[in-house]
Design goal:
Layout lengths: L1 E6 H11 L14 E6 L3 E7 L3 E10 L6 E6 H10 L5 E7 L2 E6 L2 E8 L15 E6 H9 L16 E16 L3 E21 H10 L6 E7 L2 E6 L2 E6 L8 H4 L6 E6 H11 L11 E7 L2 E7 L5 E7 L7 E6 H10 L4 E6 L6 E5 L2 E8 L5
Antiparallel strand pairs: 1-6, 2-3, 2-5, 3-4, 4-14, 5-8, 6-7, 7-8, 9-12, 10-11, 11-22, 12-13, 13-14, 15-20, 16-17, 16-19, 17-18, 20-21, 21-22
Helix pairs in contact: 1-2, 6-7
Amino acid sequence: MLLIKTNRDTLLKPLQAVTGIVERRQTLPILSNVLIRQNGEKTSFLTTDLEIQIKTATSEDLASEQPFALTVSAKKLQDILRSLSSGAEVSLTRKDDHLYVKSGKSAFNLQILPAEDFPEVADEPESEAAVTLTQKELKNLFHHVQFAIAQQDIRYYLNGLLLLTDGKQLISVGTDGHRLAYIATQLETAQKKQEVILPRKAVFELSKLLEDSEEPVKIEYLQNKIRFSFADVVLTSKVIDGKFPDYNRVIPTRNNKVFDIDRLIFLQALQRVSILSNQSDKFRGVRLIVDKGSLRIICKNNEQEEAEEELEIAYPDELVDISLNITYLLDLLNNVSSETVQCAFENANSSVLMTIPGNKAFKYIVMPMRI
């Protein structure tokens, strides 16, 4: 039975939107598949890893002889469509338990599994609370904190991003216990307090799907889940059950030794000295010696090799000699786009507060280390 006949791009775009969460190696083979369904309207594509579900649809109606639903390998179908030239005509035909993909003189035969066996996340039409903001704003919230999220930490609540609505603010926070990134954006209307921990995988997937546009995103807080709806995409994710650390206690309030520095100059200096850091170490240390008018940046390694840079800064206070994880500094400087960053200290044993001058919404805190 002929299911669909259209151009390759009409199928490839929605398929690419949903395949990001698909794992090649699954305990359940059907989780490697995409559920393709048509019921007389647009053709929908749905994938899940049992924690996250993404659903989208084609941009145009693709009439079929009759409604259908099937599952087929998401990666294989995506790779086939990618291999075809842009705009090529493609037909999908079903015969027994196989899907035939044809384009010109190319033909592919894929195995399919029953749609009724696909584990869809139960739909919850009623949300406990909802907020709406632009795609650009939400993408910005994720971009400024996602690099600070822990990876496979035994403290499972650190392997996600705190998303908090409080009054007219939507706040996102990421931390791995050694550094913390915080950013807030203003909402049009006040909201009741809602707090969830969004899994790391969902954060990175949303960051790929969101665009720098003024189009709206609706965020709905569900029971043990959260749903993001934008354009033709609906992403539903389970949330991490746990108590996120109190970020307000981490943000220093007595850091009165302050200097501003050109972000790009600081980044390039750190990249140069990092050449002689201990590359194999998880925690690569760098010394920052802040003195009147100058910042000295020093890296050493186990072979007793050393790199040093000196930069001019406007700093009138007493000397501070502090050691930090150089990776944490590089993460920040690579992920913000401001011309300058501000560094604030209290002493050599206190956390460093890094901000963007003129932007009170963003804060980045790095704990000192001993090297």
